[in-house]
Structure formats: C-alpha cells, structure tokens
Amino acid sequence: MAQNKLNLLELNDFPWNALMAAARAARLQAHAPYSRFLVGAAVLDEHGRLHAGCNVENAAYPQGVCAEAGALSAMVLAGGRRLRAVVVLGDAGGALVTPCGGCRQKLREFGAADLPILIADPQRALARFTLDDLLPHSFGPDHLSLNP
Ligand code: THU
User: Fold this and answer.
1) pLDDT tens-digit readout, 2-27
2) C-alpha to C-alpha distance for 4 and 27, rounded to whole angstroms
3) 39 CB less than 6 Å from ligand 1?
4) CATH code at 67?
5) Are the CB atoms for 112 and 131 separated by under 8 Å?
6) Looking at the domain assignment, is residue 3 inside a domain?
7) Rg from Cα positions in the chain
8) Looking at 10, 46, 68, 109, which residue is catalytic?
9) pLDDT tens digits, residue range 75-90?
10) pTM, whole model, 2 decimals?
11) What are the C-alpha distances in Å from 113 to residues 105, 109, 128, 141?
C-alpha cells in the first residue's frame, strides 16, 4: 500500500503534496447543503502556481458549480492558461471521485492529453489518470485552428 501510494504521487515530478493540501483545504470550504457531497480541487499552472476551488451548489440545483470549475476560474483570473497537474479530492467511501463529463471538457481547454489528474480522498491519493484517459478522442481548441 505504501508502495502504491508512492507510485501514484511520484514525488519528484509535481508538487503533489502541496496540491493535495490545497484541495483538502478547499473541500472544507464547499457550499454543498443539498448534496452534502464536498469536493475540493487544486491545479498547478504553467507558472508553477497553485489554484484551488470547491463546489458551490444552488437552491436552483443545475446552477451549481463543480470544484474543478472553481479552480479553473481562479487560475484564469490569476493569468494562468496551461494546466500542469490536477488534484480532485472527495470522500465517497473509497470510490473514485473523478471529474464529471462537463469538467473533463473544461480541463481539456487548458490541458494536454498527458495532463496528470490525481484522484484523492482526504486521507490519500487513490488513482492517477491522464486527461486522455478520462476524455479520449476529445475535441478541443486545437481543432478550431484547423477550420479551413
Ligand atoms: N462535484 C464536484 O464538484 N466535482 C466532481 O468531480 C464530482 C461532483 C460536485 C457537484 C455537486 O455539488 C456535488 O459534487 C454532488 O454531485
């Protein structure tokens, strides 16, 4: 198990521990009175900066915003335009809290196919994917520049 955790985090390549801490703290700020499902996300941008977000629900339920979308908004506001690493952190009793379909596409706007996405619970990293794992054969901004 300890070995597995080390493999997931590959401690040398990205500041996973700082991203985990940011996502863990963000999750505790979530406004989720309807689902009671708290999620935190943290992203690393091309400047080496961390940005965090939490889910923010609404009494008009579809108006809620996912944690990943909040973290992306914070990154863009701060001038970040490329994603280097992502952590999504929730607590589903050991099940993986992976980004929803809409958030996968939102991540695609700013991330390369090999963007690492770590899925965690408050205690530990559970799985590591690439964006292409989660959103294969995807459509993105690069396609628009191919428009004849
Ligand atoms: N949620 C996120 O914020 N991110 C995810 O990756 C999965 C789901 C939120 C949306 C909603 O506020 C709550 O979790 C339950 O779906």
Assistant:
1) 455 556 665 568 999 999 999 999 99
2) 24
3) yes
4) 3.40.140.10
5) yes
6) no
7) 15
8) 68
9) 999 999 999 999 999 9
10) 0.93
11) 12, 11, 14, 13
